[in-house]
Amino acid sequence: MKQSLTFIPTLREVPQNVETKACQMLLRAGFIRQHANGTYSLLPLAKRILHKIENIIREEMEERDAIEIELPSIQSIDLWKQSGRLEYFNDELIQFKDRNNREYVIGPSHIELITSIIKDEIQTYKKLPLILYQIQRRFRDEIYSRLDLFRGREFIMKDAYSFHESKESLHVTYEKMIEAYHRIFSRLGLNVYMVEADSGIFGDESQEFIVLTEIGEERIAFSNESKFAANTKIAPVIVDYQPSDVELKPLEKIATPNVQSIQELCQFLRVEPSQCIKSIVLNVDREIIVALVRGDHQINEGKIAKALNTANSNVRFASEIEIEKAIGCQRGSIGPIKLPLEIKVIADQAIKSIANGISGANEDGYHYLNVNPNRDFAINLYADIRNIEEGDPSPDGQGVVTLEKGIEIGHVTKLGTHYAEKMKAFITNEEGKNVPIQMVCYELGLTRLFAILAEQNQDDKGFVWPKELAPYDVHLITVNVKDEIQHNLSEQLYNILTTYRYNVLYDERDIRVGVKFSDADLIGLPVRVTIGKKASEGIVEVTIRKTGETFECAKEELIDRLNEFYRVQ
């Protein structure tokens, strides 16, 4: 492709208001352009890389007998009502009505739709197992469209679904698809961790695939002595907290003017956060509850949802108005003593060990000293409701926990029969019984894969794409297009290279050579071939982008040198 004929709008300056270095470089190098918040246009270079990622995925999927399909993005809302997922997904769903007032969603997921198809078309175990997959765009009304391409409102995803008669069949395919994911990541040159994850209210078991990065929104707990790895959203705390045997002191109410946070309280009273009881007001299924954790711990909303047998989406922090109405004070003054009788209290296990602690007094400007659970207030439920912390015992009993940040790029979930039962997707099994179909969902975020690859394959000059992913194999540059000898040699080599099936980006633009080299560094193709002053001698300059190695060779040797470079793995 001649560079003057394609569309690569490079930028000289680093774009402002861009959070990640991946997007900064993708914008500078002319791979993408941002449209609205959370939406991006993929320009020619980005599309070429995404095609390569898609081809790798297709090869690994079809190696495992998965069949490609394409499902519509527009789905009837009735399917979501039937599965029962509408109320749990409602905030992120993009919904609309057609001219006949029928309700639709623009699909953030296709579980309901694929289940409805299988329900209508598969009635016997003899047609199973079956694996179907697709690669297409998804749409979600993200509350926070931050982290650029890593969390957008519109994104590309590979989703696969497998259908089974039995749990045994499900497990075999599950392991086969896990193997496919590891092959995909290996071919992309990514170091990916598989960790235990939240399976949601409709799942039986779930794993996430995580790439460790400082920009990551997920926090992963690793054992320092075993292979244990889990998202902190679900990692259990196994500390055995016991009530203290110290002498209990009389409850005392003191003035704490302008003290709102745990940090301010600790500074004011000169105490440690572990002595404080942090009281958080939540709205759970439209009911106000108070959750208690130690001052040095962080509440885990997902664990609260599990303890109260509800969906994560049904747990949220209460608003200031709700707090004022229910308790009559500001957020920073809340405590467990003398709460209204209708407000339930759920406490983390660590609260058991607090003796003569400190809490809010449910009155602005006041706190209690010498607060003791059970003596001074009632607790409706004790449960593990905090995040696991660095240094906590590993949940598998081996070693202690270390924490790392990461980005989720894939998710696999054993759905069991949850969707089949709700949507009446039954088959006749080998024994002649009518049973619900067993299902698994396998998701892989292509937009995130592209972004993390962009994050990891760059230096201060631009991208350094590996051979397997580069949008073109060779960047052919003519130093002076007005020099007839240079022009003729460039045209000759361009034709030879394309004949040998190399994908070539040929920079024959009539611009300063410094700009050409700068653009070449930004784009980051594996090999740059420069036709310059020695063209009259039939000599070209070859530069390897990754190492910076530069050497000269005769035009007759170029193909052999390139073949050698591309043979080396």
What do these coordinates show?
The protein has 569 residues and is of the alpha+beta class. Helices cover 26% and strands 28% of the residues. The model has no long low-confidence stretch (mean pLDDT 93). The protein folds into three domains: 47-71 and 108-235 and 403-454, BirA Bifunctional Protein, domain 2, CATH 3.30.930; 252-383, Alpha-Beta Complex (YbaK protein); 474-567, Rossmann fold (3-Layer(aba) Sandwich), CATH 3.40.50.800. Strands 3, 7, 8, 9, 10, 11, 12, 21 and 24 form a nine-stranded mixed sheet that branches. It has a five-stranded mixed sheet with strand order 16-14-15-17-20. A five-stranded mixed sheet has the order 26-25-27-28-29, with helices on both faces. The chain contains 14 helices and 29 strands. The radius of gyration is 30 Å and the shape is globular.
At a glance:
The protein is of the alpha+beta class.
**Strand element count:** 29
For the record, the CATH class of the largest domain is Alpha Beta
Structural class: alpha+beta
- For the record, the CATH architecture of the largest domain stands as 2-Layer Sandwich
Number of domains: 3
What would you report as the Rg, rounded to the nearest angstrom?
30 Å
Separation, N- and C-terminal Cα atoms: 26 Å
In percent terms, what proportion of residues is strand?
A: 25-35%
Individual helix count: 14
Helical percent range? Answer: 25-40%
Write down the CATH topology of the largest domain.
Answer: BirA Bifunctional Protein, domain 2
